[in-house]
């Protein structure tokens, strides 16, 4: 028997096209509406976690991007560990009942957890999504849990809502569920990562500063104060979810693009309708919207769709055939000394971009 048990896994970022914003239960991270996202390939943005379980560890410890964090101060981490340990303990009992005599009591060992992102943390680039998805997945691998990814997504959700969607590749819905205990609030895959290879995402890093208002606090302000949120969750999102699933299954970029842009706009409208208002977009974000509008106006079909999360950084979905043209436009108007005036009048600072 080895002295310790260790696993290392990576998990990707997901970018929502139907946004999650609002909780009906804060401690369980139960959302006020379902959401849907695209999981990005892991080439550029990913979280990587190593977890070691060792009977000689005197306590569970956590390092994030090389800096030790206080595990006892993070209720979310503790919840994920507690839930994964509960499943491991059930699994150990099952193995014992099945006659396995050498079951390692991993659920009783303390853990050393080391997690890092290869991109700015907390800058509205979904770092908590890939981080918690990676943490829960790595722990499930270490514990050899037989549970499905949707079942694991229930644990990841309690770490960070959007994390539940990063358990799957491709196109992923987070079904809000109706149960008060969260047992049906989980991620399901709509289509896998091979379904629509022509679709690509360009990430425009407008700012890598930590966001001014965290999502958890921002959502609570919105739930308490925005009347527009009620309209969104009751009348808009349910229909939009159905339309988005159809657009993805049909690989209908026109429908996908319009739904994506409308939903991003409504999410930011709901932020503005909160009191005090929440601002995530800045002048560069708005200039990017203007540029995509101008670009789309050159064709009778949509060629690109912007979306923004809880920060100023843009993600632009487009089809591979348009990617070079679009990257050229963004470089021309946003990057370097030679940048030009955007036709509609905005001038912006440098924007590093990668696919
Ligand atoms: C989303 N966002 O659907 C939306 C769009 C930001 C805007 O999910 O409190 O970090 O950890 O559940 O998941 C960001 O919220 O919030 C988010 P918690 P989370 O991707």
UniProtKB/TrEMBL annotation:
Catalysed reaction per UniProt?
A: (R)-5-diphosphomevalonate + ATP = isopentenyl diphosphate + ADP + phosphate + CO2
Residues annotated as coiled-coil are: none
Q: Which organism is it from?
A: Paraglomus occultum
Name the EC number(s).
4.1.1.33
Q: Which GO terms describe its cellular component?
A: cytosol
What are the UniProt keywords, alphabetically? ATP-binding, Lipid biosynthesis, Lipid metabolism, Lyase, Nucleotide-binding, Steroid biosynthesis, Steroid metabolism, Sterol biosynthesis, Sterol metabolism
Annotated membrane-spanning segments are none
- Location of the Diphosphomevalonate decarboxylase-like N-terminal domain: 11-187
Q: Which Pfam families match?
A: MDD_C, MVD-like_N
- Which residues does the UniProt record annotate as the domain Mvd1 C-terminal? 201-355
Give the family from UniProt. Answer: Belongs to the diphosphomevalonate decarboxylase family.
Q: What is this protein called?
A: Diphosphomevalonate decarboxylase
Q: Could you tell me which pathway this protein works in?
A: Isoprenoid biosynthesis; isopentenyl diphosphate biosynthesis via mevalonate pathway; isopentenyl diphosphate from (R)-mevalonate: step 3/3
SUPFAM superfamilies given for it? Answer: GHMP Kinase, C-terminal domain, Ribosomal protein S5 domain 2-like
């Amino acid at each position: 028997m080895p002295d310790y048990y260790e696993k290392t896994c990576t998990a990707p970022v997901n970018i929502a096209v139907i946004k999650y914003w609002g909780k009906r239960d804060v401690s369980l991270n139960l959302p006020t509406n379902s959401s849907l996202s695209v999981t990005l390939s892991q080439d550029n943005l990913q979280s990587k976690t190593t977890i070691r379980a060792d009977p000689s560890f005197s306590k569970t410890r956590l390092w994030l991007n090389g800096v030790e964090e206080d595990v006892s101060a993070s209720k979310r981490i503790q919840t994920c560990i507690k839930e994964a340990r509960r499943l491991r303990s059930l699994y150990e009992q099952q193995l014992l009942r099945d006659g396995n005599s050498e079951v390692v009591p991993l659920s009783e060992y303390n853990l050393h957890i080391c997690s890092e992102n290869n991109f700015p943390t907390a800058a509205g680039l979904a770092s908590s999504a890939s981080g918690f998805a990676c943490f829960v997945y790595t722990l499930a691998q270490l514990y050899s849990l037989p549970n499905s990814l949707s079942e694991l997504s229930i644990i990841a959700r309690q770490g960070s809502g959007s994390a539940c969607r990063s358990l799957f590749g491709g196109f992923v819905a987070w079904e809000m569920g109706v149960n008060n205990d969260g047992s049906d609030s989980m991620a399901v895959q709509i289509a896998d990562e091979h379904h629509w290879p022509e679709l690509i995402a360009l990430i425009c890093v407008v700012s890598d500063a930590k966001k001014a208002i965290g999502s958890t606090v921002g959502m609570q302000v919105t739930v308490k104060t925005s009347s527009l949120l009620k309209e969104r969750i009751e009348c808009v999102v349910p229909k939009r979810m159905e339309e988005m699933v159809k657009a993805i299954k049909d690989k209908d970029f026109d429908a996908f693009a319009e739904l994506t842009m409308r939903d991003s706009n409504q999410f930011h409208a709901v932020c503005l309708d909160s009191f005090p208002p929440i601002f995530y977009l800045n002048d560069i974000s708005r200039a990017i919207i203007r540029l995509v509008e101008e670009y789309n106006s050159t064709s009778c079909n949509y060629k690109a769709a912007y979306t923004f999360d809880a920060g100023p950084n843009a993600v632009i979905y487009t089809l591979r055939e348009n990617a070079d043209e679009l990257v050229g436009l963004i470089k021309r108007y946003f990057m370097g000394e030679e940048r030009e005036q955007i036709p509609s009048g905005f001038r912006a600072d440098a924007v590093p971009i990668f696919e």
